[in-house]
Write a structure and sequence with these properties.
Length: 400
């Protein structure tokens, strides 16, 4: 008879909680998932990802960071961390398709959505029917996001939207988009007059064009909007307050998301040590480099743990600068380490292979991990912008 699992009831006993997750993963996780997800293309992949979300939902782990009232288990922060640690250690797949849906959308709606918006949209996420994307960046408005030009003009019970978005992750599969558009072009500062909308991607006038990446795949897309009608009830918060609301959306990137990726890489490190013992590990120089990378990884982990401890104690008092340092350290580290593995493994590591969705930067396909690592120094604010923040807000240097 198959065993039933009650992970959430173990809250209060850390050991038992972790053990229950491990036991559940041991019988639930398909050991062949990497191969299956790698071979599945486009339409075939979605059912696999949906099924994994549903499997997690049944034991309360689809949305471990959501409060009870919105269908989450209401786990204390320390337990959320344990969930992500255990998932990473067991090499369970990440729910990449749902990153915006599970993190950015709730971070926005919990704080700024109306009751109707929460009721209408959050259920579609927990039940794995709705994929969301984020339509912030535009050509000419990436680092300088507040320069965005997509226009939304109110006309009775709806807004008429015209403009273009770019680099929108997952837009090809998305039902809804978190959209920033300018409702008032005459604001005092460029940050004024921006409003925040929920856009139905099936609306007439929305066109999505995939962008081909350096890996040959298309994880993000351009979105063109031509007289798209968005009903007024899809405005989030007050008209003109979009810039402030966008900060809630972006704040989600500073904690658990990066934590999961780093823990996953820590697991890969262990595997390299085992698998390369008889090959490149025998080279003393490469072994030294590997050890230095390991020390660096531990320092990133320590910084993240410090941030998580601060966030748990009091999110309003957590260091505003630590996420900037973490991002600035992690991106270049990922690039150098993945480049090292390409170098250490020689010609074999250089062949292209289809990527494995759900593995983050730990697919262990050397060339793919290396090429994709560059995104980290750009997404969510480029490294140059992070350095500007440090120089201006932390060191107090004059603005350039
Ligand atoms: C993997 C990935 C996923 C993404 N997903 C999304 C998404 O889902 N939705 C979305 O809206 N956007 C997304 N983006 C876009 C991302 O937010 C932008 O790429 C980023 O903000 C940089 O903007 P940009 O590409 O326009 O570059 P630009 O702003 O044009 O910058 C070009 C170069 O100039 C430098 N630069 C710019 N301004 C300054 C300055 N003031 N001082 C010093 N240097 C400067 C930058 O550092 C960079 O090197 C994603 C990007 C990546 C890589």
């Amino acid at each position: 008879m198959s065993r039933t699992f009650d992970i959430i009831s173990k809250v209060g006993d850390e050991q038992a909680f972790r053990q229950e997750i491990r036991d559940w993963l041991a019988v639930t996780l398909d050991p062949e998932w990497r191969r299956k997800w790698q071979l599945a293309r486009e339409e075939d992949l979605k059912p696999l990802v949906f099924a994994w979300l549903e499997t997690r939902r049944k034991v309360g782990l689809a949305t471990p960071h959501w409060p009870k009232e919105w269908g989450g288990p209401g786990l204390p922060f320390a337990y959320q961390i344990m969930v992500y640690e255990e998932l990473a250690r067991a090499d369970a797949p990440e729910l990449d398709l749902f990153t915006i849906s599970l993190f950015h959308t709730p971070a926005t709606l919990f704080e700024h959505g109306t009751q109707e918006q929460k009721d209408r949209y959050l259920g579609g996420i927990t039940h794995g029917t709705d994929i969301w994307c984020q339509g912030f960046s535009e050509p000419g408005a990436g680092s300088d996001l507040a320069a965005l030009r997509t226009a939304a003009v109110k006309n009775g019970d709806h807004y008429v939207v015209n403009g273009q978005k770019i680099w929108s992750s997952g837009a090809i599969n998305a039902q809804y988009c978190l959209l920033l558009a300018r409702t008032d072009p005459n604001g005092k500062r460029k940050h004024d007059g921006i409003s925040y909308f929920i856009m139905d991607m099936k609306s007439p006038g929305v066109e999505v064009r995939p962008i081909r990446q350096i890996t040959g795949e298309s994880e993000f897309a351009e979105i063109f909007m031509d007289d798209v009608k968005i009903p007024v009830e899809n405005l989030i918060g007050a008209e003109g307050n979009g810039w402030n609301i966008a900060q809630s959306t972006l704040s989600t990137e500073r904690g658990l998301l990066i934590f999961g990726a780093v823990e996953r890489l820590a697991r890969s490190f262990e595997l390299e040590r085992r698998d390369a013992r008889e090959t490149w590990m025998r080279d003393v120089q490469l072994r030294r480099e590997y050890a230095a990378f390991y020390a660096e990884l531990q320092s990133v982990r320590l910084m993240i743990r410090q941030l998580l401890i601060e966030l748990e104690a009091n999110p309003d008092k957590a260091s505003p600068t630590l996420p900037t340092y973490i991002k600035l350290t992690w991106g270049p580290f990922l690039q150098r380490y993945s480049e090292f593995l390409v170098r250490a493994e020689g010609l074999d590591a250089q062949k292209w292979q289809p990527s494995i969705p759900g593995t983050g930067f730990s697919s262990r396909l050397r060339m793919n991990d290396f090429l994709r690592s560059y995104g980290w120094t750009i997404a969510g604010g480029s490294n140059e912008i992070m350095r500007n923040i440090i120089s201006e807000r932390i060191l107090g240097l004059p603005r350039g």
